[in-house]
Amino acid sequence: MSSTKAQTQFNQVLKTEIESIKAAGTYKSERVILSPQNSAIRVAGKDGKASDQVNFCANNYLGLADHPEVIARSKHYLDTHGSGLSSVRFICGTQNIHKDLENQITKFYGTEDTILYASCFDANAGIFETILSDQDAVISDSLNHASIIDGIRLCKAKRFRYKNCDMNDLEARLQEADKAGARLKLIATDGVFSMDGKIAPLDKICDIAEKYNALIFVDDCHSTGFLGPNGRGTAEYFGVQDRVHIVNSTLGKALGGAAGGYTTGCKEMIDLLRNRSRPYLFSNSLPPAVVGSASAALDLIESAKTNGLFDQLWGNTTLFRKLLGDAGFTIKGDNHPISPVMLGDARLASEFADKMLQRGIYVIGFSYPVVPKGEARIRVQLSAAHTEEQIRQAAAAFIDIGRELGVIGAKSKL
Ligand code: PLP
């Protein structure tokens, strides 16, 4: 560790910044999990004692993060293709399994081609500046994920922002883009907004896009693999798969939970991305073990209707929302596994979450600036891995603590 004057000054600047985060109440400390990701996890305590928790925080929607078939293929690819490529794709980092996974994803969506990235954050960072120029316009939902916002910041297109899922505002921004003489117009939206469990109205977005001759980009991280009759995501949920032009998504949530992301769409776009997209060109290939877990997860999703994964996930979601709704809680969003239990006050949300943890239910309170002021909440995420008993255990804890803290009436029923 350096002891130079520059290091001392640097430390002081960093300390001041960290203190300001703490003073704002937004400092994040990480809990350490000692087990694989699952609905039941073992968590290291601050006092050094570990505890067993029922986990309602993961994006492990289908419970595939430690599925035996996912682990088996991951291990198999490690044996057959090694730990990694030590290379970017275009130098010597493309293996047959990368091409196979890209083809598998293309087939999954019925698109023309797919490109893999180290993460969906990278896919979002790399797409806008590659496909749009200063002659074009991007019209973005105000609640889009940080990685979409960063990706758009990198591109030279004219930028317009519409109010979250507000179709009148979207239309007004498209008119502005037309007035500004935009060549291509690209509407960018999350498929599902992760803080709210709200599903973007893609059917309406498609109608408006077609009226204004605009393209549609969807970040489907919180719907890939389970939303829609076959788990194809938000577009399939609304029956508009053939009207959406670009889908970016992650392999790090429902699709095995390891890491990785992708863009899927027309072959010309994928060709251009392979040649120009900076996070693809200048970053290492996906490790074979990660390719293996995603590919096995996609196979499991192909048979999700018969292997019970979808029934389990949606049954759990409906049960949890009903138990808490009947007890008098307000749950935001559409009928999505992201089920935000609204509490309003930031301190209340944090106290509530701490008490839940003491009851063995692992949930996190979210408050400003992650969500708007006065809209603090506990974001519960359901998974196919949860048992009915675990859902009822969580609901009982919510109700007891809700009564104790005066969030719901004393006579609320379970
Ligand atoms: N987009 C959305 C909507 C997300 O929720 C996330 C992850 O939290 C990402 C992109 C980034 O995905 P990844 O973890 O693959 O980088």
Report on the architecture of this protein:
With 414 residues, this protein is of the alpha/beta class. The protein is built from 16 helices and 16 strands. The chain has helices at residues 5-23, 68-81, 89-93, 96-109, 120-131, 146-154, 167-179, 202-211, 234-238, 267-276, 278-281, 288-302, 304-307, 309-326, 346-358, 388-404, and strands at 32-33, 40-44, 50-55, 113-117, 137-141, 158-162, 185-190, 192-193, 198-199, 215-219, 246-250, 261-265, 338-344, 361-362, 365-366, 376-381. A seven-stranded mixed β-sheet has the order 4-12-11-10-7-5-6, with helices on both faces. A four-stranded mixed β-sheet has the order 1-2-3-14. A hairpin with a 4-residue loop joins strand 8 (192-193) and strand 9 (198-199). Helix 2 packs antiparallel against helix 12 (288-302), helix 5 (120-131) packs parallel to helix 6 (146-154) and helix 14 (309-326) packs parallel to helix 16 (388-404). The termini are far apart. 47% of the residues are buried. The site of pyridoxal-5'-phosphate (PLP) has 14 residues, from helix 5. This is Aminotransferase class I/classII large domain-containing protein. Residues 52-397 form the Aminotransferase class I/classII large domain. It holds the Pfam family Aminotran_1_2.
